[in-house]
Write a structure and sequence with these properties.
The structure holds two protein chains of two kinds.
Chain A: H1 39-42, H2 55-69, H3 71-79, H4 91-96, H5 103-118, H6 120-124, H7 136-145, H8 154-158, H9 165-179, H10 184-195, H11 204-222, E1 237-240, H12 251-265, E2 269-271, H13 288-305, E3 309-312, H14 316-330, E4 344-345, H15 346-355, E5 371-373, H16 377-382, H17 391-403, H18 434-455, E6 459-462, H19 465-474, E7 485-487, H20 488-495, E8 502-503, E9 507-508
Helix pairs in contact in A: 2-3, 2-9, 3-9, 5-9, 12-20, 13-14, 15-17, 17-20
Chain B: E1 2-5, E2 8-11, H1 26-35, H2 42-58, H3 64-75, H4 82-88, H5 95-100
Antiparallel strand pairs in B: 1-2
The chains are: A mainly alpha, B mainly alpha.
């Protein structure tokens, strides 16, 4: 039986088929859960520091409130007919075999309690309809298995009713937060954004020093003064990017790519120290209040700096929040230039510049790479790019093909709207969940292994900070180097030719006009 | 959850990061390193000392790239690279070295 062998002495063993259904392993992941938030992580977010005494009443009231105010949530709880279409669609189920990681089973953890208190049959004939009392054990089970969902929505693509487990998982986490059972990783981070402006806790002085350091690197590399401006008033563009782009590998190489593109496009831009984070973990915990507070920092920064446009860097769920909710939560953005989308994705900007002929590339600079592309779940299934349906799939690929000679897609069952989560999304990118993250990455890694075998693929590009970090941590366990995951704009950076850039000794790239490019 | 150093009890969080940064000492670093199964040598100390100096100035650990640049200057290009940093600190120069240096864990998508 070709179920994934995660306990092999030489590390996880790849199975040949990324969609292969594993043997059931009841309770296999019952002990895997993230650290609980401490009171100092909970309270700044407006949640009780510890489990409240009347947790049962509070939780049931919260379920009722959500069912009454969030129509989708109620429909998702009511509509499931147990057809089974979702059962083998979750990467965590495929990687762990734990049946509670089947999307329908995950939904039922909450649905069973909803039925008990909010449906006629559940109130009077609970056993007949699978309704159950809310107990402390149920709360613990929610905490465990709603933190084994990365809210990637792959299951919802295959559900004939469109039931979205991500929404149920977000609601469950909100209920847990409301009774005082928050998750440390997400809530500590949201607190930092509220006080300092980014997930890392990178203050303005450190950010400025980092960006100046990177400017030096860019000049050393290209011989051209490429700026990464910070807090520059009246710049045209505010770049809002994940703070990992200022800190981690390969994220930083993506940031250098954005800087080169902006430089060559001749636009003025700036990063803000006040809104130095694209990520919005308020989404992961289903907290609209916190999501709103983080969105409003971006609005304030845009107003204070007097920019005309807002562009988001490579971050999956940030784009989901920005694309869907920024205007609702922090709009109207009527002070921005109406000729541009609000917000715009850096890939839309870069592709537009390529199509206008403003950027030139030496694609051979990426010839050491045979590339594939990982569609990040929140971009693929919860947003769009460009002005055509499916743009979120085609815009990144169009940019990659413009800068790279050797591009090969993975199996169609594992890309586009059917893409697999990296295994670390939705607020699960924390070290104590490494076992889950590794197992959850197995389907994606298996699909990658296939294109490696078929086409010699060496690298995988991504446009999400979480994906990049997750892959750099888990890929070594699957036979790849940690730098086998690359930023899309890292490849742009490798290939772009800046006006006046040093090439091969003393030669310099001529001005665009001189080269006959229009 | 605490380390014991020379009769003193130093509290740490679930992952071994100390709670009070001023509790740090070289002896404590050795104790933390031991729990991480790292035998501290000069190169480890070069990294830990740089992290502490940087933190003193900026209240955060440096980007890995900034760390590597500095180590390249002090120890040469054969040691100032990502691969060597991971040989020194297998769980990552940022997180594991920060723990030994008595600094908070970097948070976020890193």
């Amino acid at each position: 039986m070709a179920s994934p062998d995660m306990d092999h002495p030489e590390g996880p063993q790849i199975v040949a088929d990324p969609l292969k259904v594993p043997n059931l392993a009841f309770g296999a992941m019952a002990e895997i859960k993230p650290f609980r938030a401490h009171p100092n992580h909970q309270e700044p977010l407006g949640f009780p520091g510890e489990l409240v005494g009347n947790w049962k009443e509070v939780a049931i009231e919260k379920i009722g409130e959500l069912a009454n105010t969030n129509r989708a949530f109620r429909v998702y709880l009511d509509a499931c007919v147990k057809c089974g279409a979702c059962t083998d669609k979750c990467h965590y189920f495929l990687g762990t075999g734990d049946p509670k990681n089947m999307p329908v089973a995950r939904q039922d953890l909450l649905r069973s309690v909803y039925r008990r208190y909010f449906t006629f049959a559940g109130k009077y004939f609970p056993k007949l309809v699978g309704a159950r009392e809310l107990t402390k054990e149920v709360l613990e089970e929610w905490y465990t298995y709603y933190h084994q969902c990365s809210q990637c929505r792959r299951c919802s693509v295959f559900c004939p009713y469109g039931i979205d487990t991500a929404e149920i998982s977000m609601a469950a986490r909100e209920i847990l937060d409301t009774v005082g059972m928050g998750q440390k990783y997400c809530n500590e981070i949201i607190g930092k954004v509220k006080v300092i402006g980014n997930n890392l806790g990178l203050q303005e002085k450190a950010l400025r020093a980092t960006l100046e350091d990177l400017e030096e690197d860019l000049e050393d590399e290209t011989g051209v003064s490429v700026r990464i401006p910070l807090d520059e008033k009246s710049a045209d563009i505010l770049l809002v990017t994940p703070s990992a782009d200022f800190f981690a590998e390969p994220h930083i190489d993506g940031l250098l790519g954005y800087a080169k593109v902006f430089h060559q496009a001749g636009v003025s831009w700036t990063v803000s120290s006040y809104a130095s984070e694209a990520a919005n973990f308020g989404l992961f915990i289903g907290s609209q209040d916190n999501m709103k507070a983080l969105c409003q920092r971006i609005r304030h920064a845009a107003e204070d700096l007097g920019v005309k446009r807002i562009i988001f860097g490579e971050c999956g769920h940030a784009w989901r929040v920005a694309y869907n909710f920024l205007d609702t939560l922090a709009g109207p953005f009527d002070f921005l230039d109406p000729n541009y989308p609000v917000p715009q994705h850096i890939l839309e900007f870069t592709l537009d510049q390529i199509e206008r002929g403003n950027l030139r590339f030496d694609k051979s600079k990426n010839d050491h790479i045979r590339l594939t592309y990982h569609d990040s779940c929140n971009v693929a299934r919860a947003s769009r790019m460009g002005d055509k349906p499916g743009g979120q799939f085609e815009v990144p690929r169009a940019v990659l093909r413009a800068v790279c000679n050797n591009f090969f897609d993975m199996d169609r069952d594992t890309t586009h709207e059917s893409t697999f989560c990296c295994g670390g999304g939705g607020g699960l990118l924390t070290d104590e969940l490494m076992d889950l993250r590794t197992k959850g990455a197995n389907p994606r890694m298996t699909a990658l292994q296939r294109v490696t075998e078929d086409h010699g693929v060496t690298h995988m590009a991504a446009i999400c900070a979480i994906c990049k970090t997750q892959f750099s941590k888990v890929m070594p366990q699957f036979g790849y180097e940690m730098d086998s995951v690359v930023s899309v704009h890292q490849l742009v950076s490798n290939a772009i030719l800046l006006d006046g850039q040093e090439i091969d000794g003393d030669d310099r790239v001529p001005e665009v006009a001189d080269a006959g490019v229009t | 959850m605490a380390y014991q150093v020379n009769g003193a009890t130093i509290e740490h969080d679930e992952e071994g990061y100390i709670l009070t940064l001023s509790d740090w000492s070289k002896e404590l670093a050795d104790v933390i390193a031991e729990t991480e199964e790292i035998d501290m040598n000069e190169e480890h100390w070069e990294v830990v000392n740089f992290l502490r100096e940087y933190y003193e100035e900026y209240q955060i650990a440096p980007a890995v790239r900034v760390l590597i640049k500095s180590i390249k200057k002090s120890l040469g290009p054969e040691k100032g690279n990502n691969k060597y940093m991971y040989e020194l600190f297998p769980y990552g120069p940022a997180k594991q070295a920060c723990k030994i240096a008595g600094l908070p864990k970097p948070t976020g998508c890193v």
